[in-house]
Write a structure and sequence with these properties.
single chain, about 260 residues, alpha/beta, 4-stranded parallel beta sheet, 8 strands, about 40% helix, globular, binds [(4R)-2,5-dioxoimidazolidin-4-yl]acetic acid
């Protein structure tokens, strides 16, 4: 099977790290195609960045050919609902995947993310998924997303310190890492803190493989029905559901 993994920000080094984390858990026979758009924010920290990363995400999804599932590798599950309207293959958000996985192995879990501005979106997703009561707290480690790409930064120490507080003060029984850029830290931090520490990329790959093996696809009976044909105007004309001829993959997104 072929799993298309989209990092909605434009930072290629993070996409490489995400691809490595995905391949590390993928079954033999699963091909991972890890991509990021060439336009949009270099990192997604809060609502403003998030909204400008969605067109790039959808453009990458429109480019994907013969894939069995899609994974959105941004912990806010950026553009997840719109992506499910666009694709019939299953679409998994790494946030949703990690939350459900945590609920299968712990009574209560904690989330440790990047900056405090990223916390509200994650809390809203927990409420939306009906899992808010299973999460003891969403903590910020005060680490900017791109610090995770800088080997000289002490990002790992700050993330680890916040995990220690989540276990000691919030009594978290498992930890969910709240950024795709933390994908390479999970196993070492789990050993260090003696509780399961989950990376959403790995959780999403295993869930995607499961859905494909079950032969299920996104229901088109309601919320995730294909977009109705209409012509968008201006900057987003190339994204118009109507203008199949103006596929962003072929004509480029703007003009
Ligand atoms: C992520 N941002 O997983 C989120 C994390 C965050 O660029 N990749 C990003 O801080 O919301």
């Amino acid at each position: 099977m072929r799993i298309h993994v989209v990092n909605p920000n434009t930072t290629a080094s993070m996409t490489r790290k995400i691809g490595e984390a995905a391949r590390a858990v993928a079954s033999s026979g699963t091909e991972i195609i890890a991509v990021n758009p060439d336009f949009g924010p270099p990192s997604i920290e809060g609502y403003f960045d998030e909204v400008f990363s969605v067109p790039g995400l959808l453009a990458e999804m429109k480019k994907a050919r013969e894939v069995d599932a899609h994974v959105i590798a941004c912990f806010d599950d950026t553009g997840l609902d719109a992506a499910r309207c666009l694709a019939s293959a299953p679409v998994i958000g790494i946030g949703e995947a990690a939350f459900h996985t945590a609920c299968l192995i712990a009574g209560k879990f904690g989330v440790v993310t990047t900056l405090s501005r990223s916390v509200p979106a994650i809390e809203h997703n927990l409420i939306k998924y009906g899992l808010f009561s299973r999460c003891v707290k969403v903590r910020a480690s005060d680490v900017a997303v791109l610090e995770l790409e800088d080997p000289r930064s002490d990002a790992r120490r700050r993330v680890s310190r916040e995990i220690a507080l989540a276990v000691a003060e919030d009594h978290a029984e498992a930890i969910v890492l709240g950024c795709a850029g933390m994908a390479d830290l999970a196993s070492a931090l789990s050993l260090e803190h003696g509780v399961p520490v989950l990376d959403g990329v790995a959780c999403a790959i295993k869930l995607a493989e499961g859905l494909v093996s079950l032969g299920v696809r996104t229901s088109k009976a309601g919320a995730y029905a294909a977009p109705r044909n209409k012509q968008f105007s201006g900057l987003f004309a190339p994204f118009s559901p109507a203008s199949e001829a103006h596929d962003p993959a072929e004509t480029g997104v703007f003009g």
